[in-house]
Amino acid sequence: MLDLAIIGGGPAGLAAGLYAVRGGGDVCLYEEMFTGGQIVKTHRIDNYPGISDGPDGYALAARFEEHATAFGLRIEYGSVSELDLLSNPKRFTFNGQTVEAKTVILCTGASPKSLGIPGEKELTGHGVSYCATCDGAFYKNRTATVIGGGDTAISDALYLAKLCKQVYVVHRRDALRASAVLADAALKTENITFVWNSVPEAFLGEGKLSGVRLLNRVTGEVSDLQTDGVFVAVGVNPRTELFKEQVKLAENGSVETDAHMQTSVEGVFAAGDVRNTPLRQVVTACADGAIAATYALEASRVK
Ligand code: NAP
């Protein structure tokens, strides 16, 4: 039986793994596809202390993984199912085998929100995307539109502005939520045009996106903006499908924890974007992971 099972291999899970192996625990990290989580979709990370060369998220995630595995972290790839957090030990099925662990840290992260407007489902992958780093190259020398005003939207717009002829940012208010550094850079970029106080009502096109129908919330005017691609960046949903009936969730759907990152269930911890947190950054996810691993190991020793 493991002392600790970590579910999810983004920054929170990898930091938890590093702390747990260095703390002497018998620990394994279970990751569905590849380590790094949402940061692998980020083209530049400028705000992780001590790393000022602005690596892309993929490179930073690779460094995290290398660091944790160098200290002995085991990482297994596959899908976790039938998770029972209420039993002692905790149990789940992984690639057809039952795994038992004294404690668990949930690091399943968050996935991009959709808008739920007409045309979105049909045109996803045909002009509508949720990842500028993944799909931006399709719009080289063409026109792209980003929906949202947060850090993701504005860093996507800056990335796309280097590739595209013209980038529009459609935001529902007249002030950005994104951090000042990103916002100032975008406002100064010549080929980024802001469309303020506007929300998308429908994505247009048959089989291929041709534009987006916008409603101006101040004037009530409806207009069609022609664009080759749309990048939806309107926030994230915590990924709790596996365990939402077993641990207490906040109203916004994220996992409630105490200051030790313990959830409502003894021996079960949560860290990173899946947790009810006021700031979703790489550095806060890593800090959550470190705290969760420290107290999970402590809990495993009294069991
Ligand atoms: P976010 O901060 O929640 O921003 C979402 C944006 O989408 C907001 O501007 C919001 O408008 C808008 N929005 C939400 N629902 C909408 C809807 N239905 N229609 C139109 N617009 C809508 O999400 P995020 O930008 O994905 O960032 C998530 C977390 O990751 C944040 O904590 C962020 O700081 C972090 N992050 C950090 C970095 C970085 O540091 N480089 C990069 C990416 C993400 P309002 O402003 O009006 O609410």
Q: Can you tag this structure with a few keywords?
A:
7 helices; alpha/beta; FAD/NAD(P)-binding domain; elongated; 17 strands; 2 domains
Q: What is the class of the largest domain in the CATH system?
A: Alpha Beta
Instruction: Tell me how many strands there are.
Output: 17
**In the CATH classification, which architecture of the largest domain applies?**
3-Layer(bba) Sandwich
Distance between the termini: 12 Å
* CATH fold naming of the largest domain: FAD/NAD(P)-binding domain
Give the strand content: 25-35%
User: Which residues sit in consecutive blocks of at least 5 with pLDDT less than 50?
Assistant: none
Q: What pattern of helices and strands is seen along the backbone?
A: EHEHEEEEEHEHEHEHEEEEEEEH
Q: Find the structural class using helix and strand composition.
A: alpha/beta
What does this entry look like structurally?
By secondary structure, this protein is α/β, with parallel strands linked by helices. It folds into two domains: 2-111 and 236-300, FAD/NAD(P)-binding domain, CATH 3.50.50.60; 114-232, FAD/NAD(P)-binding domain, CATH 3.50.50. Helices cover 25% and strands 27% of the residues. It is built from seven helices and 17 strands. The strands form four sheets. Strands 1, 2, 3, 4, 5, 6 and 17 form a seven-stranded mixed sheet that branches. A five-stranded parallel sheet has the order 8-15-9-10-11. NADP nicotinamide-adenine-dinucleotide phosphate is lined by residues 42, 47, 115, 147-153, 155, 172-173, 177, 199, 233-236, 279-281.
